Amino acid sequence: MSTASVVAPASPVKAPTAKAPDPTVTDPALVKRAVKAAALGNAMEWFDFGVYSYIAVTLGKVFFPSGNPTAQLLSTFGAFAAAFLVRPLGGMVFGPLGDRVGRQKVLALTMIMMAAGTFAIGLIPSYATIGVGAPILLLVARLVQGFSTGGEYAGASTFIAEYAPDKRRGFLGSWLEFGTLAGYIAGAGLVTIMTALLSADDLTSWGWRIPFLIAGPMGIIGLYLRLRLEETPAFAAEAEKAENNRPKTPLREMVAGQWRALLLCVGLVLVFNVTDYMLLSYMPSYLTGQLHYDETHGLLVVLGVMAVMMIAQPFAGALTDRVGRRPVIATGCAGFLLLSVPALLLIRDGSLLAVALGMGALGLLLVCFTAAMPSALPALFPTKVRYGSLSIGFNVSVSLFGGTTPLVVTALIGATGNMMMPAYYMMAAAVIGGFAVWRMTESAGRPLPGSAPSVAGRHAE
């Protein structure tokens, strides 16, 4: 047969395939600066929380009418909780703004407002001086703090998550909560030193102002560090799309369009913050106010627990990169469900060793959340709505369940006389958190939704 008669079969036409996005190669030095700047803001926020929680009894005497000490403490925690009521408003303002104009600009703004609110508390005259104006001014300052904080944690965790290489996001994100613990230890430690060195009269008349006034210079340092940072690669890519007429994302899309992720976020943040505020904010007052434990020893025990948590924090963060976020968070939920009652019974025993063991057990369980959440929560949302949706979900949950924990538990104990209420409250939170972690998708080692893969640059290790 002639070769001319042979017709080669036609090659099949292949459909064009979308090209995978090129990976982002991170600059190790820039990543370190981003982590430091984000963690410092969180440290300043929790410096204020540490001071406020540890000096709550004194603040009650300064800002509220004399009389029932329990009523004074409830009023102080009421002002503490009020700041959390405006956090969702701050989240709804700063979150979408961060998705529109950039993470770095909004984080600089929240730093200024947090520092100003805390500094202002140190300048407010006492109730004995100006009467009812004192608690009103305290409430205003707390509302400024709460509003600004509405954009802080979600922005800081988003900032670190978008800078971090995929395989190191858990480790780098854990330093955000390292900053939390460092700030809390600094605030609580300062109050402990002042309590030991100053008389009760000096602490009430002028000593309590010192920790709040320190927020001024701390805010200036934090602002300087944040202004030196560049925008995250993920946001820069989204900004480039905006130049091609990408429509702005409406607020309703951040909620209705992300409803499943938002519900998971609320559940995870609930267990994270109920246990966090229970241990770090409420327990110091529980030890002294409810159990009549020696104030100085109680403060030192809690400070020691937080120091142990700080040491464990980066190791636990690295563990989430190896085994995943879900197993680590699930371990924390199971631990609080099973060990909250035994731990509180140890704490109620009253001996120094028993209190240390009970608080230590709760602290190590809390590390399961503090190490995993800064990397797990941003991974719930795509880049274009990450800051906004996370701010809304995080702050709604904190406002309803986390920040109200000291007030609610104090009221429950007062109403029922049951001193085990803190354990039952943590157990209920653990059940909700366990359901959320069961439904969430593992994110360790994977690119953030809507972002290109991110790999570590040279000399990152």
Kindly describe this structure.
The protein is mainly α and 461 residues long. Helices cover 76% and strands 1% of the residues. The chain has a two-stranded parallel ribbon. Helix 1 runs parallel beside helix 9, helix 8 (152-163) packs across helix 9 (169-197) and helix 15 packs parallel to helix 19. The longest helix has 32 residues, at 259-290.
Describe how the helices and strands are arranged.
Blueprint: E1 24-26, H1 28-54, H2 56-63, H3 69-85, H4 87-101, H5 103-121, H6 127-130, H7 133-149, H8 152-163, H9 169-197, H10 200-207, H11 209-213, H12 215-227, H13 233-243, H14 251-255, H15 259-290, H16 295-323, H17 325-349, H18 352-376, H19 386-402, H20 405-416, H21 421-439, E2 454-456
Parallel strand pairs: 1-2
Task: Identify the notable features of this structure and list them briefly.
single chain, 461 residues, mainly alpha, two-stranded parallel sheet
Oligomer type: single chain
* Helix amount: over 70%
What composes the largest sheet?
A: 2 strands, parallel
Structural class: mainly alpha
Gap between N and C termini, in Å?
Answer: 67 Å
Instruction: Please give the number of β-strands.
Output: 2
Radius of gyration: 24 Å
Strand order of the largest sheet: 1-2
Order of helices and strands: EHHHHHHHHHHHHHHHHHHHHHE
- Average pLDDT: 84
Unreliable stretches (pLDDT < 50, length at least 5) are: 1-18
Shape: globular
Q: In percent, how much strand structure appears in the residues?
A: under 5%
**Given the structure, what is the number of helices?**
21
